[in-house]
Automatic annotation (TrEMBL), chain A:
Keywords from the UniProt entry: Cell membrane, Membrane, Transmembrane, Transmembrane helix, Transport
PANTHER family from the UniProt entry: ABC TRANSPORTER PERMEASE PROTEIN (PTHR30193), DIACETYLCHITOBIOSE UPTAKE SYSTEM PERMEASE PROTEIN NGCF (PTHR30193:SF41)
Organism: Streptomyces pratensis (strain ATCC 33331 / IAF-45CD)
Cellular component GO terms held in the UniProt record: plasma membrane
Protein name: Binding-protein-dependent transport systems inner membrane component
GO biological process assignments: transmembrane transport
Positions with biased composition (Low complexity): 1-15, 24-33
Bilayer-crossing regions: 40-63, 109-131, 143-164, 195-215, 244-264, 297-318
Family the entry assigns: Belongs to the binding-protein-dependent transport system permease family.
UniProt key word Ribosomal protein: no
Primary location group: membrane
Residue ranges of every copy of the ABC transmembrane type-1 domain listed in the record: 106-318
Compartment(s): Cell membrane
UniProtKB/TrEMBL annotation, chain B:
InterPro entries linked to this entry: Bact_solute-bd_prot1, SBP
Transmembrane feature ranges: none
Species of origin: [Kitasatospora] papulosa
Highest taxon of the lineage: Bacteria
Keywords in alphabetical order: Cell membrane, Lipoprotein, Membrane, Palmitate, Signal
Name of the protein: Extracellular solute-binding protein
UniProt cross-references to Pfam families, sorted A to Z: SBP_bac_1
Region Disordered, annotated ranges: 26-49
Position of the signal peptide: 1-27
Amino acid sequence: MTSATPVSAPAETTAPPAPERHVGAAPAPAGRGSARRRELGACGVLMTPFFVLMVTVFLIPVATAVRLSFFSDDQPGLGFGPERTVFAGLRNYTAVVTDPTFLGGLGIVALYCLIYIPLMVAGALALALLLDSGVVRLRGTAQLALFLPHAVPGIIAALIWLYLYTPGISPVIEVLGKADITVDFLGVHTVLPSIVNIALWSNLGYNMVVFYAALQAVPREVIEASVVDGAGPVRTALQVKAPLVRSSIVMVAMFTLIFALQLFTEPMLLSQSTPMINSRFSPSMYIYDAAFTRNNYGLAAAASVVLLLCTVALSYGVTRWTNRAAAAEEGAR
Amino acid sequence: MPGRQSRRHVLATIAALPLTGALSACGGGGGDTRSGGTSSTGRTVSSGNGRKTRITFWSALRGSQEVVDAFNRGHDTIQVDFQQIPSGGQGGYAKLSNAARAGNAPDIATIEYPQVPGFAIDGVCRDLTGLMSDGLRAKLLPQALGLTTFEKRVFSVPLDIEPMVMHYRTDLFERYGLTVPRTWEEFEDTARTVRRKGDERRMALFPTDGDTHFAAWSWQAGARWFDTSGGAWNLSLADAPTRRVAAYWQRLTDQHLVFMNASESRQSDAQIAGGAVLSRLSGAWDAGAQMKARPGQKNRWAIAPLPQWDPADPGVGTHGGSTFAVTRDSTAPEAAMEFIEWQVSHPDALRARLSSGASSQYPAAPGLVDVGREAFDRSYYGGQDIYSLFEREALKIRAGWTWGPRMTATGKLMKDGFARASGGQGDILGAVRAAEAGTVPDLEALGLSTTRHST
């Protein structure tokens, strides 16, 4: 899942020159038409793999999911009769949005986002600012140590934490128990923070690197100016550096939001160990359960489309909101 | 900044998609297989003088290998290839669904009663109405056959029917001077005595993973969670008898008169092995499972009828029990049916199964009860004639119970609720209501006519 971010990062940096070249080519004289054709041909060749992949692994599956959500192999009445494929209309969607278990899953993910995203963004930014400020010795080692958990696949990370959370085998619980502290990491109220903890552990280092890279691009003279003006290190970090990496913060927040909405691996694994995580804990788990244990593909497809729409709408909302905020800020200056 | 924004927008959309993609990739395959794949599970092989039909059989039941061996020894024209698979909840049902979807399901699958309607609706089970002989029909207990018959069509043949009984510790009953409770009221009193005298012992367990236990108790009280009258699935999981049962167990758990934890857990194993729990409320089959699991407790257990609500109108529900279905993909349904008929009604089949030493199944064919009575090794239960007890209890099974079309999912929701209740969130009745509320959208999305009647 997280591989989408590294792919997108270069795209963001390499894409801007393309329109420029285009703009440059537009006023070219008609005599250079053949060169232009060659350029278009090269464009076509170079972009074909992208579009082929996009169609096969993106558009076709989405179209299939949408089709599955609207059509159904029905056996009317009790369901034992002969099957016929019918247009089911919004039936699957009605079922999904009236299903208390699906809505409950959405609620849990919303709560998860509210806890996780601020912690993640603030934590990663704080670490990046610390590293950038030069306070930290052994900067390379610290960076590597923080980044390393991200290299651990999500499922392995969940397994490690499952071991640390499970009473009876966890050394952490044992040590705490010796100090007369009883903790149940997998209890009714603690299970969500436990999941947040796993996700933080896995992704904090990665997002810290993103922020750190952005901070490297902050012109040194700006920082020197603030120091000359008498700002201390904390004030420099919070009032000078942080606003300058604003676009990175928005990007990290958005990707974190998108991956958070797809919450699946961690609760799926933890559910082996605690009844407090049920098989429909998050919307993604609901979809998995609907498709593979309830054999209800129409419902699963509709739930996927609903989740997709929620994600797109939220991402769109976040960008609109931050753009407007940025414009307002610029207007105020 | 509009350029940046739209690019981000697209990236966001792409990042959001893997899930939808993965789902529809799998779903697409699912849609196709229903139209009937080409399967080659049943093969006809010419050998020597005659033709031999080979059929495949999947089961998780104890003693199945012995049964298959006995059948193969006595038959030349049909040979059965047996494959032991995990029990349903441990992945056996997922395996069957996937195999049916891929067109390589076995000829015969073992399905427990609660899952029969689901597999029938999904088209895994073949309609056996025409294949089943009248002789076989007559041999089976009507309450058992009723559970696998929908719209007058039989989708699966019952092997065993398991009335819920009370397994109890004779030695501990004696130590505390207890008598076997005959009503639930007496059961509660006994539980109170045990709590008072019993050094951290408890009368029983309310299993938080016991959706089937709870179903059996509700069934006994007269509940009808699903009803198919009027050509629709009518749900009333929280009907009056169920509410009564829920309130009863709520009181027992609130007052700590019974344990409340998962039954399939190390904790529960320890409670039974360590003598912390005085009774187990479960199906007749559990007698054999107990023998196999804890040979050291020989002579300490006996079996009694389940306590009643009203001794004047006795009833029980079933807990466990399996059926055999011929899959729609089978190419040798007649041969498969012949094996099934032999397995559920022939004395040799039951003898072979009981010879494994781990089964006390109560046959759905009453004609076999005598065979079971003779073949079962009574020494573990101090010579108690448990088959005669099962026979009396089986006659009390209330007719009219129907399992739902997505019983695994319904049960799971109920278990989730029980587990939360044990963690201090919600209660038993709430779990039952949540199970109904979470089942309805599922059925509606499947296109089934559905009504709700819980109050």
